[in-house]
Specification:
The chain has 4 helices and 17 strands. It is α+β, with helices and mostly antiparallel strands. It has a 5-stranded antiparallel beta sheet, with no helix packed on it. The chain has a 4-stranded antiparallel beta sheet with strand order 5-4-7-8. A 4-stranded antiparallel beta sheet has the order 10-11-12-15, with no helix packed on it.
């Protein structure tokens, strides 16, 4: 019996030593800070070196307008929104939506400040009021341009082949007018009847102080044709409903899918709720007066988690009589993996 116990003890000790020997130090990560990360510029001989510390997730983007086009304003009434997620591994996952009527291409242009033109790195065919998403691959030498406002996105058209609207990519947590972002779609609504909708959109919200009053400017581009109303609702989590905290006036809702409005006074509770992603934007239509598309308002810091590379659209509607699912986050996925590993360990032990 004693011999058995001693052998068992030695076995456990050898397993423990093997685990220690095979354990590697975890990769170090750099959490977002209030200052822009260090970047690496190309050396004089044209070579580049890897950044010493790359951020996990950053959001770049803004609102495209004609006044940003070089060498002169095209005077176009079209607008658009571009959001690009940088994952720290030389990939930009982008979302673009605009209302340029005779659009030809969306172009990602490198090495140009706001008052110059640069080299087209990527371009994709595009259509008016159609969500365009994909990935751009960048090199280490491009990271410095990205963080120093030397890259922009524009939309060319038959009328303006050199660009009709444009925006310089800017870092969102530190951009004055881009404090919150979000994607609207029908899947985030809580009504079963809108499962047939193909509506979607992008939104950018930002604010500040004006004569001692807090204000917020909301910019939305969407593809609904019969919009009857728009509102900011809350507090409510994903797949839950709430009354309107702010309502867009009818004059701000245009027929071309573009909404721009400045709310003159925002409440402290509204800001706090948006910081926790407990507010959402909802658009109503003639066919769906209770809301056809909706999007949870997210502070940019929400997207800095290592498991996120872009928007997470929550499927709040499914087939009839299917319960509305609870909110799913990256932490939930991590807990799921941990539970699976725990189950495997327990089954092995038993």
């Amino acid at each position: 019996m004693k011999t058995t116990i001693i052998l068992f003890t030695l076995l456990l000790a050898s397993v423990a030593l093997a685990q220690v020997a095979n354990t590697t130090a975890p990769e170090s990560t750099v959490p977002p800070s209030s200052s822009a990360p260090s970047t690496v510029a190309p050396s004089s001989n044209g070579t580049t070196s890897s950044p010493s510390a790359a951020p996990l997730k950053w959001i770049f983007g803004g609102v495209m307008t004609s006044s940003n086009v070089m060498p002169s304003d095209t005077k176009s009434t079209a607008s658009g929104i571009v959001l690009a997620f940088y994952d720290g591994s030389l990939t930009l996952k982008y979302y673009v939506m605009h209302n340029v009527q005779d659009a030809v291409e969306v172009r990602f242009v490198n090495g140009a400040s706001a008052n110059t033109t640069g080299t087209v790195m990527y371009k994709s065919p595009t259509q008016s009021r159609v969500m365009l998403t994909g990935e751009w691959k960048i090199g280490y030498g491009d990271i410095g341009n990205l963080f120093n406002k030397m890259q922009y996105v524009d939309v060319t058209s038959k009328s303006f082949p050199n660009g009709e609207i444009r925006v310089t990519l800017d870092l969102s947590p530190y951009v004055y007018g881009m404090q919150y972002v979000g994607m609207l779609d029908f899947m985030q609504t809580t009504k079963q009847g809108v499962a047939s909708s193909i509506g979607n959109g992008l939104m950018v919200l930002g604010g500040g102080y004006n004569i001692h009053k807090e204000y917020m400017v909301a910019t939305i581009i969407h593809n609904l044709n019969d919009t009857t109303g728009a509102s900011i609702n809350g507090p409510a989590d994903y797949c839950a409903s709430a009354s309107a905290a702010q309502t867009f006036p009818a004059s701000a809702i245009s027929s071309n899918g573009f909404i721009l409005y400045q709310f003159s006074t925002m409440k402290a509770d509204d800001w706090a709720g948006m910081d926790k992603s407990l507010y959402y934007v909802q658009l109503t239509t003639k066919n769906y007066p209770d809301g056809e598309i909706r999007g949870q308002i997210q502070p940019p810091s929400y997207y800095t988690g290592s498991a996120l590379t872009g928007f997470e659209s929550k499927a709040c509607i499914q087939s009839t009589n299917t319960p509305v699912p609870t909110r799913s986050t990256s932490a939930g996925h991590i807990m799921g993996i941990s539970a699976a590993l725990l189950g495997a360990v327990l089954s092995f032990a038993l």
